[in-house]
Structure formats: C-alpha cells, structure tokens
Design goal:
By secondary structure, this protein is α+β, with helices and mostly antiparallel strands. The protein contains 17 helices and 17 strands. Strand 4 (163-166) and strand 5 form a beta hairpin. The protein has one domain: Cytochrome P450 (Cytochrome p450, Orthogonal Bundle), CATH 1.10.630.10. The structure holds protoporphyrin IX containing FE (HEM). The site of protoporphyrin IX containing FE has 26 residues, from helix 12, helix 13 and helix 17.
Length: 471
C-alpha cells in the first residue's frame, strides 16, 4: 500500500483542487471576516482533505461556530462536548424522529423512536446485553476468539492471502484474520442463530450494512432484510415452544439465547410479533459488527504505534480498559448522531427552527480541548478520561469525563458493554498468541508525504498488517 489511497480518495470527492491536502493538524485557510474570525466553507466537509485531517476543522467550528448553520447540507452542526451531552440527555427536545435512513433495511426499529416507546422497545433486548446476562456470555466470547485464532495455526503457507509464514515470522492481516468476523460471530452466538445459518448471516449482515449506504445497494439491503425475516419466522415459531440455550465451556446451559428470550417476551400481555422480533434482531446485527471491528483494529494500530504504552499493557493486563476507552475517544468508529429539535431553540445565538436536522459530532466532542487536554495525543494514562464502568448517565467528576463514542443518555449504545468485553477479551487472547507483534508498515497506507503512516482521520483502519515471532 502507498499514498495511492489518498489519491483515490481525492478523485472520489469533489473539490480536491479547492481544498488541497494540508500537513496533518493544520487547516486550509478558508479566509477570514473583517474581525479576523476564520470563515468556514461547508464544502470542506465533503473533501478528501477533511476525511484525512478533520480535527483542525472541527476546532474552527468549536472555537468560532459551536452551532454552525450549514446551508449546503441543510443542517446544523453541534461540536462542543457540553452542548452535545445536553442535547443527548434531552430526549424530548432533541429526538431521533424521523431518522428514517434505516427504515426498510433494518425495519421499524427503536432508532426512530423516542421517549416511553423507545424505552419499552430498548429494554426488550438491552437487558440481555448487560450485567449478569453479559457475564454469562463471556465464556462464549472467549471460546469464539480462541477458535478464530486457533485457525491461524492450521493455515499452511499460501493457504490464505492474509496469513503467511516467513522463516521465524508470521504475517497476519488482523482484519480478515480476526476483527472483521469476530464481532459478527459473537452477535450470532448470543442471539442464538443456528450454526448452519452463519455463512448466510454474513451475507445478510453485509447486505444490510451496504443497504444503509446508498440507493443502489438499498434494494439489496431491503431484500436481505426480507430474506432474514423469512428465515427468522421459522426459528421464532420453533423457539416459542422450544427455547434454545447458550452453554459454558463444560457444556452446561447458562441461559437462553436472545432470540428465545425475545420469543417469550410480552408487552401489554401479548408476545412480540415476528416482525418485532426481526426488527430487534436486525438492529442488534446492524449495530454490533462494523463498530466493534473498527474499535479492535484502531486499538491495535494506536497501541503498537506507541511502543512504550504497549510495553506497559504487556506488563499489566488491566490496562486494556484504558486502551479501549482512549481509543474510542481518540479515534472512534462512529462519528456522531443526527437529532431533530422538537421546538424552536436558540443555541450560542443561532436560532434553530423546530424540526431541523442537527448533527451531533461525537468525534469533535471527543477532541474538545475544553474537556480533554491535548486531545490529538493518544495517551492511555491520561488523567482527564474516565475509563471505569460504563454508565448511561456518562461520567463527569473531578476533572474526568467519559468519552462520547457510545453517546450518552437514553440512546446510549446498548452494545457498549458487550463490545467492551469483545475488544478486551479478544485483545488479551491475541496478545498471548502473538510474540513481539509489530505493524508491517510497508504494507500500510502512507500519508501524502509517502513516509509517515496515513492518519486515521474519520475512517477506521481498514487493514492492519502485523508481523510476529512464531514461538
Ligand atoms: C465500539 C463499538 C460500538 C460503538 C462505538 C457504538 C456506538 C453507538 C452509538 C454512538 C449509538 C447511538 C447513540 C445515540 O443515538 O445517541 C449506538 C446505538 C446502538 N448500538 Fe452501538 N456501538 C458499538 C457496538 C455495538 C454493539 C456490539 C451492539 C450490539 C450487540 C450495538 C447495538 C446498538 C443499538 C441496538 C443501538 C440503538 C440504541 C438506541 O437507539 O437506543 N452497538 N451505538
């Protein structure tokens, strides 16, 4: 890989000549008003420069336009940590209706709901992804990680393009060898999908995900969802009278899988319809793959590029928590969330008429220097980040704040706890397996100077080539 990555990115975006690539961390000069205040041209948001180097532009917004009325994209951008948390907590004033982008593909999900209706839907499955239920699922997460990594030793030279041995070293592309599929396998397992349906499950997942992206792939996404619903219908009917269970490593049942739980759940005295069960499943499937994949790859990339911090983690396994949270603060896999204001509001002197589209930029909140010191620095020991138990209320005490990668408040990601377990458990097992791992930098994308590693920008790492000693 090389700098062609950015060349291609620039060619796929408009305005490349207008917004040239800048040194990382430095914004292109878009001019200033008579008082010297920097101007902000919203076309930058569609440029390859912004994808690669977003943070200096978010800083301009935070410092000079904390609520930016973007007439080009017909929305308002909110970029400061404090404002975003306030809006997330105010579920009535800033609601998620009508998001709409997922309907048809994910079905009628709670993403489009607010208030009581949202809480009711969310509790149906959310309770199975936290607390004691989650603890019961940890052995299954461990087993799945072990199985996937075990497979590496069965591969002979040339068997797969992404695992190769050379003398005493093994080369692995961590995405294809682990991170792309691991979160999907976990979701499949905790939901209780039959093993034989798993290959088909990846097809449903991939099609639904690309279906959310654009009109061409939308049809395939809707078809995949329909296909999934047809398949689930049979399972739901069966599980209503014969529930299935998850098992520990000794083969003892540890609790019903989520599909079986959903099948027996009653709302207002009536069991959920197949459509309702399917929508819940489609949402869990949709939420749980790409996000955790990105988190695992970003974690390993950032950590290995900071060898002193990696050394500390090797000596103290408990630091994986810090790695997970600092990675999500520094380079999350989700940029932000849309909201619509129910009433006319005024924020920072900007009048926002009711019903406007407001983009809450979690990326920017996580890099708000009002909260996090020197925010572009990756530092698992930073004192201003809270890395404790995940709380729906968020955390803000004694100079420590939670990051915003899972949102906060009523819509806080219900998969936060399980993705945390996946990333930590998976990484601990990976660390045991890989002796002396290093990034094979000559296979990784380079920055525009052809030398430095490409910045992550607003995209997660797509491929991570690692080399380690074969013991
Ligand atoms: C590192 C991994 C993950 C990240 C960064 C992430 C991030 C997010 C964010 C930012 C939201 C939206 C919150 C809002 O609208 O305010 C969300 C919602 C959601 N996530 Fe995640 N997520 C991750 C993993 C997962 C996993 C593993 C699952 C499922 C097993 C999941 C399922 C969901 C669902 C169902 C919602 C909708 C919640 C609602 O509207 O109440 N996510 N996630």
């Amino acid at each position: 890989m090389n700098t062609d990555f950015f060349k291609q990115l620039a060619e796929s975006k408009e305005g490349a000549e207008k917004f040239p690539f800048m040194p990382e961390g430095q914004a292109f000069d878009m001019g200033a008003d008579v008082d010297g205040k920097p101007l902000f041209d919203p076309r930058i948001l569609d440029s390859a420069e912004f994808f690669r180097n977003p943070y200096p532009y978010y800083r301009i917004l935070r410092d000079h336009y904390p609520v930016f009325h973007d007439r080009l994209h017909n929305c308002y951008w909110v970029t400061r940590y404090e404002d975003i948390t306030d809006c997330y907590f105010d579920d009535e004033g800033f609601n998620t209706i009508p998001k709409g982008s997922s309907s048809g593909v994910l079905g009628n999900t709670q993403l489009e709901l607010s208030g009581v209706e949202h809480r009711r839907r969310r509790n149906l499955y959310g309770q199975h992804l936290v607390g004691k239920s989650l603890l019961l699922r940890i052995p299954a997460i461990e087993r799945l990680a072990e199985e996937m990594i075990e497979d590496w030793s069965r591969l002979a030279l040339g068997d797969e393009p992404y695992v190769n041995d050379t003398e005493s070293k093994r080369l692995v592309e961590l995405g294809r060898a682990f991170a792309n599929e691991f979160p999907i396998r976990v979701v499949c397992e905790v939901l209780g999908f039959p093993k034989e349906a798993q290959p088909q499950f990846y097809y449903w997942y991939n099609s639904m995900m690309s279906g959310l992206g654009g009109s061409e792939t939308h049809r395939v996404g809707v078809e995949a969802r329909q296909d999934l619903e047809d398949y689930i219908q049979g399972i739901v009917e069966e599980r209503r009278h014969s529930p299935t269970y998850l098992y520990d490593s000794a083969g003892n049942p540890i609790g019903k899988d989520i599909i079986s739980k959903l099948c027996e759940t009653k709302v207002d005295g009536a069991v959920l319809s197949t459509e309702e069960v399917t929508s819940n499943i489609a949402l869990i499937v949709g939420g749980g793959g790409e996000t955790t994949r990105g988190a695992i790859l970003n974690m390993w990339t950032l950590l290995l590029r900071h060898p002193d911090q990696f050394l500390a983690v090797q000596k103290d396994n408990s630091l994986w928590d810090n790695v997970f949270h600092e990675t999500l603060r520094h380079s999350s896999s989700i940029g932000g969330q849309p909201r619509h204001n129910t009433f006319d509001v005024e924020m920072h002197g900007v009048k926002i008429p009711a019903g406007s589209l407001i983009q809450m930029v979690d990326f920017s909140a996580n890099h708000d220097e009002r909260i996090f010191d020197d925010p572009e620095r990756f530092d698992i020991f930073r004192q201003d980040l809270y890395s404790g138990k995940l709380l729906r209320s968020g955390y803000r005490k004694e100079g420590r704040c939670s990051h915003m990668a899972f949102g906060v408040g009523p819509h806080l990601c219900p998969g936060a706890w399980i993705s945390h377990q996946e990333a930590i458990v998976g990484s601990e097992i990976l660390l045991k397996k890989m002796q002396n791992p290093k990034i094979k930098e000559d296979l990784m994308p380079r920055d525009i100077d052809g030398n430095k590693p490409a910045p992550m920008g607003i995209t997660s790492v797509r491929e991570l080539w690692l080399e380690f000693d074969i013991s």
